[in-house]
Write a structure and sequence with these properties.
elongated; single chain; two-stranded antiparallel sheet; alpha+beta
Length: about 90
């Protein structure tokens, strides 16, 4: 299988919903789950540290993005920027 990050895009959202249900309960209303997630911050996932308090409903911003490079010689990814895009 070729390396790809597409499979990781569903991991964090699923864990965020699980976290919300653990806090508000399995019988919580959709509004209660949404309210919990909208107040979530400093939640660390595999794609970055989430903060939903800005109202964008994204959790991640350009300040959390990094650029990685695939090194075929040793079959690993290597970070080439700091969060936000500044070179290492």
């Amino acid at each position: 299988m070729k390396p790809d990050v597409a499979h990781s895009f569903s991991w964090d959202p699923a864990l965020i919903v699980v976290d919300a249900l653990r806090h508000v309960g399995l019988d919580a209303s959709p509004d209660a789950v949404r309210s919990y997630i909208e107040g979530l911050h400093s939640w660390t996932g595999i794609n970055g540290v989430y903060d939903f308090r800005d109202g964008s409903q994204r959790g991640l911003s350009e300040n959390t993005a990094i650029v990685i490079r695939w090194n075929a010689a040793d079959a690993t990814f290597k970070g080439v920027t700091k969060p936000g895009g500044a070179p290492l």
